[in-house]
Amino acid sequence: MKIFATSLASLIIAFCLTGSAAVLTILYLAFSNDSEEFKATGLFNSVFFSSSVNERNNLDATFGINSQLNLFIVFMALFIFSFITILIFRALTRYKENLKSSTRE
């Protein structure tokens, strides 16, 4: 049961971090270029932002997911990292409790 709870917590953490990283990368790409027409990718080529001038001389901005595989790899890396971090934290907490209980006896 603890492995399921750890997996669920890691899944939620990885989802939130991946989504936040994608949104922040798109915002960075949008405001990091001064030219009117450009296309830029970020977050290991997984998201993109492009802007162009349309026929009415207005600026069209487009953004989205460029590579689902790269975004999934980022998600899995964050999932594995958070899963291992939670397991280490729980092991250290148990070790600390064992030390406290052994010093009382």
Report on the structure:
With 105 residues, the chain is of the alpha+beta class. The protein has one domain (2-104). Helix content is 64%, strand content 18%. It has two helices and three strands; from the N terminus they run H-E-E-E-H. A hairpin with a 5-residue loop joins strand 2 (47-53) and strand 3 (59-65). Helix 1 (2-31) packs across helix 2. The longest helix is centred in the last third of the chain and has 37 residues, at 68-104. It is rod-shaped and about 80 Å long. The two termini are 31 Å apart. The chain crosses the membrane at residues 69-92. Keywords: Membrane, Transmembrane, Transmembrane helix.
Record keyword descriptors for this entry.
18% strand; rod-shaped; 2 helices; alpha+beta; 105 residues
- Report the principal-axis shape: rod-shaped
Count of DSSP E strands?
Answer: 3
> Spans of 5+ residues with little confidence (pLDDT < 50)?
none
Give me the Rg, rounded.
Answer: 22 Å
- Beta strand %: 15-25%
Transmembrane segments: 69-92
Keywords: Membrane, Transmembrane, Transmembrane helix
